[in-house]
Each structure stands twice: as structure tokens, then as C-alpha cells.
Task: inverse folding
């Protein structure tokens, strides 16, 4: 069950790049355990918003509140692409373990190795753990990115168009997995996507960014027509 | 061969160099810094020439130039799209300065050759001690920042999201690299130092799939190259840097061939 404990609040958030307003007066409260989709056309500011939430950009106006405190909110991030070519040497197991930076010794402690193995198991990667990630398929890579993001036990997970380059079956597999983790671990998820049917299938709420402003609500209010209308008005 | 003190010193120095290059090389390859390493070695040449001009040891001049320039290069190269052009400009400037300092120092051609291509007979036991101290310093810093450096080198996107101090890590790594270049240039010379800082690790990448194993294999390959190079140089009286370069390049081409065969077998 989703509790109504706020984890993230955007208060009058605005971002303007020189001569180009991205979004303005954005207000949003995200509660613990909720699964949100963030939709909107290309260039409307979805990634800028995510980078603002990730502390990588400072908003022009307003603020991002992490609740109950900034240290209490651990963010995991799964991007669409990473700089991993076919010759990238690390195995999936080693790649997942990269995110464990808390212990001071160069090698992983027993507890940390157990966490890596548990996450590999949870994401269905145990049998592939020794495969160099450069040689993994797109779906396996995304699962490895997910496992790496989750191994530090975040309470907020951002999927930034993580399914965009996957085939329909792999998309479903990945989101089934995220949904299961969302429900069992009470993990809050922000899913940035263009795929409205996928958003309707898996998420509970939506935030739509358009050049005219933002709209939010329960996911059953989100239709392709609504997104197309936003885009058409922009054109 | 080992009855000569200079050969014992050369083997001791070569072993230190192989270890430091094996470890640092893995990060050089992961961070795509082969070209930058090449530039630092040229800056090392300029620094050594300045050291001679100023009446210092070549190593002191190298340390000064490589450390200062690594910070400048790091700042200029933050944007990936201008990295190569900025590095080329700095490389050209420092080679020119190196030639100027050598000319001003009024040294003979063999001194310049030693700086550029290294020398086996010039290594004294105090040089070995100096290299050991610098190498230990580099290793201690690498050990302290190891997990952060590993994350940033092998997954920069993940490290950024995690909020790691990636810019500071980058500059710290460049300073460590500058120290490694200065240490290793004593044997193979400033012109060929990038061989040991890139090829063993680039070869190891095809056979080892964890950072620790890559380091282990890179150290082993560097040791084989340096020891064999020293022995062959002693026997034939040809330059040690030629043998080290040839051996390491051979390993690399074998690795490329092996990788190609593996890929072909899968398809």
C-alpha cells in the first residue's frame, strides 16, 4: 500500500536558460511509494527537471524539498544510455558493485558482496553476472543499470527514458520488475517516458510538461490525445 | 648481468615503474586518456629540459612541469569536444619549449636523447629510492580514493548522479598521472612513457573483467615488457625503449587478434 508520506516537494519551481524558459511555477508533491510518469514532448524540459531533482542543476526560481531531510532521500538513477561500448571490460557483477562507495577498503566487504548478489538475484541477472556488460543485450544492460541504482538502497528511483530503446517484451519485463520492487520495497519511482500506453499500464500518477505549462493527475486521466493536443498547441 | 650495479638499479626501477604503470594505466584506459598521457610525457620532456637549464635534476623539472600542466590540462579539457584540440595545442607548445630549454642549456645531443628515449646506465640507487618514494605516494593516494576513482572512471554517469566530486577526482587523477609519468620516464624516456601507461592496461582489458584483475594483468604485462626489454638491451646493446615498445605493442596486437577471433566465433 502507498502511504501518504511526502518524499519530494517541488515548490514554485522554475528553470530558465538564457532566453529560453523551460518550465515555470511547477508545484508537485510526491509521496513515498508512488509511481509517477513524467511525460511531454522532446525538449520540453523533462530531463532538465530530473537533473534539478538530482542536484545537478540549480533552479532559477522555487526549490526542491527532500523530506524529511535532504540526507534521508537517496536517489537511484537509470538513464537510457550510458557510455558503455562493446569493449567495455567490467562484468555485470562488477558494474553493479561500482555504486558501493561507502566502505573505505578497495575491495568489497562480505556484506557488500551479499548486497550485490541479492540485487543480481532480484533483477534476474545472477546467471549473467560474469558476462562483460559491453557484451550484454540492451535489456540486460538496463537491468544492470537498475541493479546498480538499487544496490545502494535508494528510496527514490528515476527511470529517465530507460525503456525507450527496448523492444516491447523487454520493456514489459523491465517495468514488471520495477513495479514489483516499487510495491515490495515501497520505493518511489519517477518514470520519464513518451510511451503513454506503458505509463498507463504501470504508473499511478502523471506529470505532463508542455510549453504552455504543466498538468498532473491520476494516470487514467492521461490519454494520447491529451499529449498530442499539448504538442499540437505548441506547433 | 646482475653483477653490474646499474643493471640491478635498472631492474629495481623497472619493477617500480611496471607496478605504477599497471595500476594507473587501467584508469588511463577507462577514462580514455591515452592521448592526454602522451601529451603529459611530452610536457615531461620539456620539464626535464628546463631542469637541466635551471641546474636542477631532470626529474625535478619534470615533476614541476607535469604537475602544474596536468592541472591546467584538466581545466582546459573539461569539455570533451575540445579535449583533443586543447591537448594538441599544449603538446605543441611544450615540445617547442623543451627544444628551447635544451638549446639554452647548451647540452650535448646525447643528453637530449637520454631524456627522450631513456637510459639504463643512468639509474643510480638514489634515483631508485626517489622513484620508490614517489610511487608509494601515488599508491597511497590511489588507495584512499580507489572506490571513487573506480566509479568515476568506469561509469562517469553513475558517479555524477551519486554526487561524487568528479571534477576534483579528475584533477587529482591527472596530478597522480603526472607523478607517474615523471617516475616512469627515467627508464623508457619521456617520448615513450605512454607505452607503459596505456598498452599493458589496454591489453589487459581484453582478458580480465574486473578492475583488480585488469590491474594484476597490466602489472604482469608491464613487468614482462620491462624485464625482457632490459635483458635484451643488455645483450644486444640496442635501446631498451625499443624492446619495451615492441614487446608491449606485440601483446596488444595479440589481444586485438584474440578479441577479433572471439567475436568472429560468436557470429
Result:
Amino acid at each position: 500500500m502507498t502511504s501518504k508520506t511526502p518524499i519530494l516537494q517541488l515548490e514554485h519551481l522554475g528553470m530558465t536558460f538564457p532566453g529560453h524558459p523551460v518550465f515555470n511555477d511547477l508545484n508537485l508533491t510526491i509521496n513515498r511509494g508512488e509511481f509517477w510518469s513524467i511525460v511531454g514532448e522532446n525538449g520540453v524540459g523533462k530531463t532538465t527537471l530530473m537533473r534539478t531533482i538530482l542536484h545537478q542543476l540549480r533552479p532559477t526560481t522555487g526549490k526542491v524539498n527532500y523530506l524529511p531531510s535532504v540526507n534521508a532521500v537517496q536517489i537511484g538513477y537509470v538513464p537510457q544510455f550510458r557510455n558503455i561500448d562493446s569493449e567495455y571490460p567490467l562484468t555485470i557483477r562488477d558494474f553493479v558493485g561500482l555504486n558501493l562507495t561507502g566502505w573505505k577498503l578497495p575491495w568489497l566487504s562480505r556484506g557488500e558482496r551479499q548486497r550485490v548478489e541479492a540485487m543480481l538475484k532480484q533483477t534476474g541477472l545472477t546467471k549473467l553476472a560474469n558476462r562483460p556488460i559491453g557484451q550484454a543485450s540492451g535489456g540486460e544492460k538496463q537491468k544492470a543499470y537498475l541493479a546498480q541504482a538499487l544496490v545502494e538502497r535508494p528510496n527514490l528511483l528515476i527511470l529517465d527514458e530507460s525503456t525507450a530503446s527496448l523492444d516491447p517484451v523487454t520493456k514489459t519485463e523491465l517495468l514488471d520488475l520495477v513495479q514489483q520492487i516499487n510495491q515490495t520495497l515501497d520505493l518511489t519511482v519517477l518514470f520519464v517516458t513518451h510511451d503513454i500506453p506503458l505509463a498507463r499500464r504501470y504508473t499511478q500518477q502523471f506529470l505532463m510538461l508542455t510549453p504552455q505549462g504543466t498538468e498532473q493527475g491520476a494516470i487514467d486521466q492521461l490519454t494520447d490525445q491529451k499529449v498530442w493536443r499539448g504538442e499540437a498547441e505548441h506547433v | 648481468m646482475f653483477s653490474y650495479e646499474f643493471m640491478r638499479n635498472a631492474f629495481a626501477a623497472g619493477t617500480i615503474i611496471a607496478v605504477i604503470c599497471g595500476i594507473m594505466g587501467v584508469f588511463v584506459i577507462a577514462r580514455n586518456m591515452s592521448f592526454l598521457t602522451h601529451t603529459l610525457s611530452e610536457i615531461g620532456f620539456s620539464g626535464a629540459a628546463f631542469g637541466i637549464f635551471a641546474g636542477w635534476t631532470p626529474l625535478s623539472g619534470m615533476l614541476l612541469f607535469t604537475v602544474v600542466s596536468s592541472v591546467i590540462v584538466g581545466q582546459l579539457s573539461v569539455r570533451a569536444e575540445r579535449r583533443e584540440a586543447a591537448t594538441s595545442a599544449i603538446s605543441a607548445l611544450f615540445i617547442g619549449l623543451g627544444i628551447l630549454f635544451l638549446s639554452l642549456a647548451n647540452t650535448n645531443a646525447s643528453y637530449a636523447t637520454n631524456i627522450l628515449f631513456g637510459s639504463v646506465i643512468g639509474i643510480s640507487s638514489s634515483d631508485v629510492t626517489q622513484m620508490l618514494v614517489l610511487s608509494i605516494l601515488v599508491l597511497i593516494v590511489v588507495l584512499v580514493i580507489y572506490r571513487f576513482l573506480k566509479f568515476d572512471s568506469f561509469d562517469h554517469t553513475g558517479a555524477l548522479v551519486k554526487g561524487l566530486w568528479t571534477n576534483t577526482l579528475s584533477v587529482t587523477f591527472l596530478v597522480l598521472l603526472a607523478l607517474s609519468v615523471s617516475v616512469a620516464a627515467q627508464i623508457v624516456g619521456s617520448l615513450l612513457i605512454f607505452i607503459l601507461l596505456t598498452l599493458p592496461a589496454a591489453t589487459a582489458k581484453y582478458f580480465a573483467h574486473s578492475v583488480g584483475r585488469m590491474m594484476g594483468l597490466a602489472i604482469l604485462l608491464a613487468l614482462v615488457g620491462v624485464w625482457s626489454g632490459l635483458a635484451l638491451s643488455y645483450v644486444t646493446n640496442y635501446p631498451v625503449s625499443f624492446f619495451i615498445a615492441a614487446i608491449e605493442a606485440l601483446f596488444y596486437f595479440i589481444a586485438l587478434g584474440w578479441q577479433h577471433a572471439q567475436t568472429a566465433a560468436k557470429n
Remarks:
- Chain A has a mean pLDDT of 86.
- The CA atoms of residues 96 and 148 of chain A lie 4 Å apart.
- Residues 83-153 of chain A form one domain.
